[in-house]
Amino acid sequence: MADATPPGYHSVTPRMVVDDPVAVVSFLRTVFGAAGTAEPGRPAEVRIGDSLVMISETGAREAFPAFLYIYVEDVAPTFQRALDAGAVALEPPFDTPYGDRRAMVRDRFGNVYQIASRG
């Protein structure tokens, strides 16, 4: 069977529906070093590491917050960048029993990010 997944995508692509895609893309670029921009009239395609996240504006769909688990090089500075960019801390960085160092924040749009690195 042929692979129906477009080039650059994975089989599952998270999608966020937000009131202000430009602001969310800016947050993702600032905090996670995401690549991509928001363009009027179409979903933004933002790459974080090797993963693609689609971001759509409300209208045809109502706002729907995301819960994303994102691996980074170093949790502490990423967590601090998120706070500096207006996120609220939900969990400070800590070591999990399964080997990840993890923190959790919520952006001003209601999206939750677990920020992790493998110890």
Topology:
Elements lengths: L14 E4 L2 H12 L11 E5 L2 E7 L9 E5 L3 H10 L3 E8 L4 E7 L5 E7 L1
Parallel strand pairs: 1-3, 4-7
Antiparallel strand pairs: 2-3, 5-6, 6-7
Helix pairs in contact: 1-2
* Envelope shape: globular
> From the alpha-carbon coordinates, what is the Rg to the nearest angstrom?
15 Å
Biggest sheet details: 4 strands, mixed
- Helix-strand string: EHEEEHEEE
SS-derived structural category: alpha/beta
Number of domains: 1
Calculate the mean pLDDT score and round it. Answer: 94
* Low-confidence region ranges: none
Level-2 CATH architecture: Roll
Percent of residues in beta strands: 35-45%
Please state how the strands of the largest beta sheet are arranged side by side. Answer: 4-7-6-5
Can you tell me the CATH class?
Alpha Beta
Total count of helical runs of at least 4 residues: 2
Q: Fraction of residues in helices?
A: 10-25%
CATH topology, which one? Answer: 2,3-Dihydroxybiphenyl 1,2-Dioxygenase, domain 1
Q: CATH-wise, what's the superfamily?
A: 2,3-Dihydroxybiphenyl 1,2-Dioxygenase, domain 1
Give the termini distance in whole angstroms. 38 Å
